[in-house]
Amino acid sequence: LPFFEQEHHWAKDLNVALALTGILIFSGSFSLGMGGIPWVIMSEIFPIHMKGSAGSLVTLVSWLGSWIVSYAFNFLLLWSSYGTFFMFASICGLTVVFVERLVPETKGRTLEEIQASMNSSLAPVSSGINRAA
Questions:
Q1: pTM for the structure as a whole
Q2: Based on the domain organization, do 54 and 112 belong to the same domain?
Q3: What is d(CA 97, CA 94) in angstroms, rounded to the nearest whole number?
Q4: C-alpha closest to that of 99 among 26, 32, 40
C-alpha cells in the first residue's frame, strides 16, 4: 500500500480533506455546545450594573484559557499523546460534573429570580442572635 501511495497522490489529498473535515466538525460542535456556555452563564448570573466589567473579565479569562491550551498542546503531545488525551478527557468530565452540580437551572425564570436565588445561596448564615435587641 505505501508503494501504491507513492505512485498515486490521491491519498495525500484525502488526508488533507479528512483533516479539514475534522476541524470543521469540531469547530461547529464546539460552537453549538460548550463554546457558548460562558457567555450564557455570564448574561444570566451577573447583575445589570456589573455586566460590562464582568463581561470584560469573562472575555479575558476565556481568551487566556484558549491561549494556554493552544500554547501547551504541542508540549503535551511531545510528553505523551495518550496522557494528553486523558488529561483533556478528564477536564471535560470535570466540566460536566461542575455544570451538573454548580450551575443553576435558569429555564423559565426571570433575571430577578435568578439573581435572588444566587444571592440567597451566597448570603452569610446568621447565628440566630438578635442584634437589634
A1: 0.56
A2: yes
A3: 5
A4: 40
104: which residues sit within 8 A by CB, 6+ positions away?
45, 114, 117, 118
Give the separation between CA 88 and CA 27, rounded to whole angstroms: 16
Helices 111-122 + 37-45 axis angle, to 10: 80
DSSP state of 128: S
Residue 131 domain flag: no
The pLDDT tens digits for 105-133 are 777 777 777 777 777 766 555 444 444 44
104 and 117 Cβ atoms separated by less than 8 Å:
yes
Cell numbers 452563564 label which residue?
A: 41
Count structural domains, the chain: 2
User: What is the average per-residue pLDDT within 72-96?
Assistant: 89
Are 20 and 43 in a shared domain?
Answer: no
Helix/strand/coil for 6: helix
Instruction: Dump the DSSP string for 51-81.
Output: HHHHHHHHHHHHHHHHHHHHHHHHHHHHH-H
Task: Check whether residue 46 and residue 24 sit in a common domain.
Answer: no
Q: Which domain holds residue 16?
A: 1-32
